[in-house]
Amino acid sequence: MSLRSKIRVGVLRGGPSSEHEISVKTGAHVLKNLPDNYEPVDIFIDKSGVWHAQGVAEPPAKVFKKIDVIFNAAHGEYGEDGTVQRLLDTFAVPYTGSGHLGSLLAMHKGHSKNFLKSHGVKSPHHKLLKKEDALRQNLHDLWRAVPNPSIVKPIALGSSIGLSVVKNFQELEPALEKAFAVSPAIMVEEYIAGREATCGVIGSFRGEETYALLPVEFVLPESSTFFDYRAKYGGGTKAIHPGRFSTMEKYEMQNTACRVHKALGLRHYSRSDFIVSPTRGVYFLEVNSLPHLAAGSPFIESLSAVGLSFPGFLEHVIKLALQGKMR
Fold first, then answer.
1. Does residue 99 sit in helix, strand or coil?
2. Superfamily of domain 126-190
3. Domain 3-95 - what CATH class?
4. 187 burial type by CB count under 10 A (0-12 exposed, 13-18 middle, 19+ buried)
5. What would the pLDDT profile of 219-250 be if each residue is shown by its tens digit?
C-alpha cells in the first residue's frame, strides 16, 4: 500500500489543560501504535492553545486539510469539555470519542450525577456549591448540610486536581479554598470508605452496542487515603486486572458503566469510576469520556484482559469515527 492510499489520522494531543502532560503521553502512545494502514499526523496543541501539525504552527482550518480523521487524545479542559468537539463539528471533521454535548455533560461532575440519578444510577450524596454562594454561607451550616466525612472537589475538571478529604470541621475551609482555586464551582460529596475501581466500555464491539470490559481494582499507596491526582500519577498505586470483586459486584459495575455511557450519549469508549463499600455496595463516582491511553494505563490493561490489542482497539474506534457511529 502506498503512503498516499493510507488514511491520514491526526492524533490530537496537549492543549491548554491541567492534564496537558498526560494528554501528550496518551497521544505519543497512540502515534506509536497506529496500525500500518494509517498515516499518523502528530497534531500538538501547546499550553497557550497554538496548534502544530508535524511540528509546524498552523491554524486549525489548515491542519484539518492534512488529515482524514482525528483521534482525540486531548484530556481535561478543552479536549473533554466539548470545546474541541464543537470546532471539529464546525469543520465536519470525523473524530474519535464523544461529541460535544456528551463530553460537556460528562465533564461536569454535578450535572452528570444529577442526570444519571434519574436513570437509577446510585452515587454518593452530594451538594454543588458556587464560590459566591460559599462566601455568603456560614461554614457551620455547610458542615451540617452534607454527610461527614466528605470529599471536596472541583466539578469541571477531568482530573483529580483540587480534591481533599474532609474529616473534621477544621479541614473544611482549606479544602474549599483548594477546590475553588482551580474551579468556580465545586462539589461536596459524601465520603464512602471502600475499594476504588474503574470499568471501561467500548461501543459496537463483539456484537454488543456497548461492551463492558472487566473492572479494575486500585490499591492505593500507604501515603494516600483516596484516589487523588498524586495517587493516580505520582506512582505507588497498584492496579489489579481484573479486580478482586464478587460476581455480583463485577456485574453491577459493568452494567452501570454501560448505562452511564448510553444515558449521557457518549461515543466509542468511556470509563466509569466506582467505590465498592463492604457494607453498602457499589457506588458510581464519575465518568471519563476520554480515558487515559498512555502505556500501562488501566484502560489499556483492561483491553489486554479481554484479548484485544491496543492497535486493534485503535483500528476499531477509528473505523467507528469514519462510519459516523453514534455509540
1. coil
2. ATP-grasp fold, A domain (3.30.1490.20)
3. alpha beta
4. buried
5. 876 655 555 544 454 456 788 888 999 999 99
